C-alpha cells in the first residue's frame, strides 16, 4: 500500500484494511455544497471523493470510478442501464439533465432497478439531505435529514451499535466505550470514536416501508446522552437483491478522506459490503453468511412512517446549502438482520473490542453479483 496524497487532503501511510475483493465498477452521483464556507482544503467535494476512492493506496480494488454531476445526469442513467456494481449517492439537490430539465424521477427509477438487479447503493453524507424534488429518492433510500449544525469544539461521537456487522467491524479502530440509548437501540456501552470538527444532522427521519430489514450501524448523541440520532444504517427491502448503506460523516476533508482513518474505513467498508453477494447467487434477499440476528434486534417497525419527534434534538432549520433548517423528526429502531451479515445485535457491548472489532470473513466476498 503506497502513500497517497488526496486533493487538498492529508497524506496517509496506511490504506483502509479490507479483505480481498473483486474489482468494482463505481459510479458517483454528486454535487457541491458548502454551507459553512470551508476552504477547498477543508471541504469534501465530489471530485475529492472520487480521487480518494480511485487512489491506488485506498485499499479498494477499483476497475473504474466515474463521477457524474447531479445537474447533468444523462450519462449516469446510461451507465446504470449498462451495469455498475456500486452507486455512491452524494447529491444534495434533485437531479436534472444537462439541459436543465428535471430527471429525478428517471434517476430514482434507475436506482430502484439497480437494487433489484443486485447492485448496491452507498448514500454518502448530504445524499440523504432533503431538497425539493428528492422526496421519491429519499423514500427509496430510507431516510431524510433536515437540519445541519457545524461543531468545531466537540464535533460528534460516532458510536458503533451494529455489533459485528461488516461495516462497523472491518478494520475499525475505536478509542473507547460509551453509553448510548435511543432511536430503538438497546441501552448499553458501545465502541466509539470522535470526529472534530464535524457536521451534524441533528434531525434525521427514517423512512420505512413494509417488509424491510434495517440494521442501525452508527449513532450519536451529545455528551449528556440527549439528541440521539442515527449516523448510518444497512437497508434491504423486498424485491431487492442489493442493499443500501447510509454513512453520515462527510464534511471535513482532512478527517473524512484520511485513507488511514476510521471515516474512510467505514466508507470503504460500505462500498465493499454493498458490492458483494453470497456464494449462492440465487437468493433474492441479499447475501446470507450464516449469521443470525439475536432476539434483541430492536428491529425497525416497517409499518411506521418514520416521523416521531425527539424533543431533545437541536436543529437549525431548512436547507444544508444555507445552514438553516426545520427540525424534522427523529425516528427508527435498531437493526434487523437485513439479508446480509447485519447481526442486528443491540445488546450491551455488542461483542466489540475497544481497539478494533474482530475481522469478519465473508465467504462470498470475492464473488460478483448476479445481474438480472
Largest sheet: 10 strands, mixed
Q: Give the name of the CATH architecture.
A: 3-Layer(aba) Sandwich
Helix content: 10-25%
Shape: globular
The domain tally reads 1
What percentage of the residues does DSSP assign to strands (E)? 15-25%
What is the CATH top level name?
Alpha Beta
Q: How many DSSP H or I helices?
A: 7
Strand order of the largest sheet: 4-3-5-6-16-15-14-9-11-10
How would you describe the overall organization of this protein?
By secondary structure, the chain is an alpha/beta fold. The chain has a single domain (4-275), classed as Class I glutamine amidotransferase (GATase) domain (Rossmann fold, 3-Layer(aba) Sandwich). Helices cover 16% and strands 23% of the residues. The chain has seven helices and 16 strands. The strands form four sheets. The chain has a ten-stranded mixed β-sheet, with helices on both faces. The radius of gyration is 18 Å and the shape is globular.
Amino acid at each position: 500500500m503506497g502513500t497517497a496524497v488526496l486533493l487538498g487532503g492529508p497524506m496517509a501511510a496506511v490504506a483502509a484494511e479490507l479483505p480481498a475483493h473483486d474489482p468494482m465498477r463505481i459510479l458517483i452521483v454528486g454535487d457541491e455544497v458548502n454551507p459553512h464556507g470551508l476552504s477547498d482544503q477543508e471541504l469534501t467535494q465530489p471530485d475529492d471523493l472520487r480521487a480518494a476512492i480511485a487512489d491506488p493506496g485506498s485499499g479498494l480494488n477499483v476497475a473504474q470510478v466515474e463521477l457524474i454531476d447531479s445537474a447533468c445526469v444523462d450519462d449516469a442513467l446510461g451507465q446504470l442501464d449498462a451495469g455498475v456494481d456500486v452507486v455512491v449517492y452524494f447529491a444534495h439537490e434533485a437531479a436534472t439533465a444537462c439541459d436543465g430539465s428535471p430527471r429525478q424521477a428517471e434517476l430514482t427509477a434507475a436506482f430502484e432497478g439497480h437494487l433489484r438487479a443486485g447492485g448496491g447503493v452507498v448514500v454518502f453524507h448530504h445524499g440523504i439531505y432533503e431538497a425539493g424534488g428528492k422526496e421519491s429518492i429519499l423514500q427509496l433510500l430510507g431516510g431524510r435529514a433536515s437540519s445541519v449544525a457545524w461543531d468545531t469544539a466537540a464535533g460528534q461521537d460516532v458510536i458503533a451499535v451494529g455489533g459485528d456487522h461488516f461495516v462497523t467491524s472491518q478494520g475499525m479502530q475505536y478509542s473507547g466505550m460509551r453509553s448510548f440509548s435511543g432511536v430503538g437501540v438497546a441501552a448499553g456501552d458501545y465502541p466509539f470514536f470522535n470526529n472534530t470538527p464535524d457536521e451534524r444532522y441533528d434531525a434525521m427521519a427514517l423512512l420505512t416501508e413494509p417488509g424491510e430489514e434495517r440494521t442501525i450501524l452508527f449513532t450519536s448523541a451529545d455528551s449528556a446522552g440527549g439528541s440521539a440520532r442515527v449516523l448510518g444504517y444497512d437497508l434491504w427491502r423486498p424485491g431487492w437483491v442489493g442493499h443500501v448503506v447510509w454513512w453520515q460523516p462527510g464534511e471535513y476533508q482532512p478527517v473524512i478522506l484520511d485513507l488511514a482513518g476510521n471515516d474512510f474505513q467505514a466508507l470503504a467498508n460500505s462500498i465493499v459490503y454493498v458490492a458483494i453477494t453470497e456464494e449462492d447467487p440465487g437468493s433474492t434477499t441479499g447475501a446470507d453468511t450464516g449469521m443470525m440476528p439475536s432476539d434483541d434486534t430492536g428491529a425497525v417497525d416497517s409499518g411506521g412512517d418514520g416521523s416521531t419527534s425527539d424533543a431533545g434534538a437541536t436543529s437549525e432549520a431548512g436547507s444544508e446549502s444555507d445552514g438553516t433548517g426545520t427540525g424534522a423528526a427523529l425516528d427508527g429502531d435498531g437493526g434487523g438482520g437485513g439479508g446480509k451479515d447485519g447481526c442486528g445485535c443491540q445488546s450491551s457491548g455488542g461483542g466489540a473490542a475497544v481497539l478494533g472489532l474482530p475481522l469478519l470473513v465473508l465467504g462470498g466476498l470475492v464473488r460478483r453479483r448476479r445481474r438480472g
